[in-house]
Amino acid sequence: MLDAVSAFEMPALQRARGSVRVVAKRRGEATVIERLYQRGSAKARIPNGEGFEVVLLNTAGGVAGGDRFENRIEAAPETCVTVTTQTAERIYRSMGEAGRVENMLHLGAGSRLDWLPQETILFDRARLSRTLDIDMAGDATLLAIEPLVLGRAAMGETVQTGFLSDRWRVRRGGTLAYADALRLDRKIEEITRPAAALAGMRACASLVYIAPDAEDRLDTLREAIGDDGGASAWNGLLAARIVAPDGAGLRAALIRAVLCLRPGPLPRVWFT
Length: 272
What we know:
The protein is mainly beta. It is 9% helix and 49% strand. Helix 2 (218-225) packs antiparallel against helix 3 (247-259). The radius of gyration is 19 Å and the shape is globular. The termini are far apart.
């Protein structure tokens, strides 16, 4: 006979696993694919069009507790790569474990990589641990954003509790150039209410631009962001924070910011 504890044990839940690796190389004047590896629920698509664009997909439909995903993108010397996601990534309520996402980018000499994922939507009681590790050559150019939305406004949802750890590390020429960490734990609604945090806003984003001309772009970026955030520049690096009352406002501000730092339009999936 089962004892009282084992009779009420939770069943083992299926966990999503996935990994993607994309290596881009230069052929003549164009950037083309050299290698593509994909496994499990993580997929990558490379649409036809101007420029080399990688669209990451999660066929599991979101990230739940205990899920594990890994994406590795390598831009060979003198290549130009844009990486985005098919849609917003949903982080579902967890019954204990955190979902884990590891993103790794490598930029060769003279290359450019734009990391432009769509929004991460954190559900109430969700748990996510995510890392972004970047290794770039000293003369490479990086534009990276991470937009975050707390809850589903259309559902009237507020994120009262949960967990988010979002860690960035950027090494330029082998030296640590930028490190950042966002951590929200337990009472997220209470933590984000003060003016020194999000002042009750539901959406925010981090932006980093590292390039030889980064410091020269500061005034242009500040003008694009306006009252929706702030930006600073130092040592060949430009960093900004953007906040908005909802996902639509955040996206509008991000589009203005990205377009002033990027030579071409945003990926088409941002508008579909």
